[in-house]
């Protein structure tokens, strides 16, 4: 029997006939909901990233039509994400919008290669504390930057400057009527985002982000408020494929670091999002390697078009599941609706206030900070909580890439510390201690056996225990009980034993020379 178009979108165990038509209706409805959620987020992420608003829509379209059609995760939806906003902004500031396509293209190719090599599942081994710290750091920098956009002000470039500049921003806003109006629109947007889900009937009809943007845009138009709007170009005019000069920039160390940061963060965020989405539905589970390749294919296409990098977006994915989606048809169709909107109604973007999009992103940034998880994590796994906080702080103080590297190094060090348990067993001590020790017993060496995993992290503890042994007895060091010993620890133990025994022999020789 010839497969229908619906069957192409259906996973294993798909249905047919009237059941298939019912599934398609559910996917069609869900695709409209996801489209309505995606529009303000695509535009807002693009504006916050310092690129034309249309580039955010292009990434959303590719996320639906390319990544959405490929195997991996059946209900996860991809597009430009708030999690990469800070990194993209820094890259655009340093290398320019034209270089963005090269960065995204190479990141996509790396993701394709990692998926083909079966490395997708290994991203599940990344410490959850590092990922949460990464998202928290992104959220903090995103909020700090968008506070300026709430008042139609230009934000400083670095994360620390954004935070330290807030007192001055408050003073400037207090003295400007236009800034206060923009701030009121932005704060009102945040209020709608918080309160709208409480009106369950309204939330079922209109997603909170779209409701907030629509109400704020309507209020701005009705009262003719003098605040900044989104600048609009044509969809084709916004496409900037990378040229030869942009590829030459790959020779710079900073560009390579940015590409690696794009790849690591986009991959980790997408695969962690996939794990979260799998918990929301009972359908087929995610194939992590195929999903990584799907993300890579999407990013490669986005790079060719000069658009923003994409990740799986938990907000859209959750909306897709909650709207009743059954197959990947919903996410493909959401890409179709984005394309139709961008081609037929681009001028609709020009009436949206920048402060409104800033409000959406401030709310999104706050959702990235694991405020509810931090206290329980501190109580149960204090080391993990410290890694989370340090990673977030490092991102704010330095930048995204360096902050994540610091977090990963801390996680590795913590694991090494926890696994390197060392025990020192001493035998022969009774032969030379106490008043009843026989003659010459003090001349017998102590047998010291070290067991466990000896690394440089445990070296201070080991040396302290060895220093506590009797100084007049020679040592026989036995390392055969060690499951692992690194070079630094092995050399330090051998050197200490050699020096200790040399001192014992020297002192014994001196004692023999001294007359009784």
Q: What is this entry, summarized?
A:
By secondary structure, the chain is mostly helical. It contains 23 helices and six strands.
Question: How would you describe what is shown here?
Answer:
This protein has about 525 residues and is mainly alpha-helical. The protein is built from 23 helices and 6 strands. The strands form 2 sheets. Strands 3, 4, 5 and 6 form a 4-stranded mixed β-sheet that branches. A two-stranded antiparallel ribbon has the order 1-2. α22 links the parallel β4 and β5 (about 475-480). Mean pLDDT is about 80; it is low at about 1-5, about 10-15 and about 435-440.
SSE order and pairing:
Elements (H helix, E strand, L loop, with lengths): L4 H5 L7 H32 L4 H13 L12 E2 L5 H11 L4 H17 L11 H23 L8 H6 L1 H9 L2 H19 L4 H6 L2 H15 L12 H4 L5 H5 L4 H26 L9 H18 L5 E2 L1 H9 L6 H16 L9 H15 L2 H10 L1 H16 L2 H20 L2 E6 L18 E9 L4 H9 L7 E4 L3 E4 L1 H27 L3
Parallel strand pairs: 4-5, 4-6
Antiparallel strand pairs: 1-2, 3-4
Helix pairs in contact: 2-3, 2-11, 2-16, 2-17, 2-18, 3-15, 3-17, 5-14, 5-15, 6-18, 6-20, 6-21, 9-11, 9-18, 14-15, 14-16, 19-20, 20-21
Write out key terms for the chains shown.
disordered N terminus; mainly alpha; two-stranded antiparallel ribbon; 516 residues; 4-stranded mixed β-sheet; single chain; elongated
H/I helix tally: 23
Helix content range of the residues, please?
A: 55-70%
What integer is the average pLDDT?
81
The number of distinct β-strands equals 6
Through-space gap between termini? 109 Å
Provide the β-strand percentage band: 5-15%
The poorly predicted ranges are 1-6, 8-15, 433-440
What is the string of helix and strand elements?
HHHEHHHHHHHHHHHHEHHHHHHEEHEEH
Class per helix and strand makeup? mainly alpha
- The general outline is elongated
Estimated radius of gyration: 30 Å
Question: Main β-sheet: number of strands, strand sense, barrel status?
Answer: 4 strands, mixed
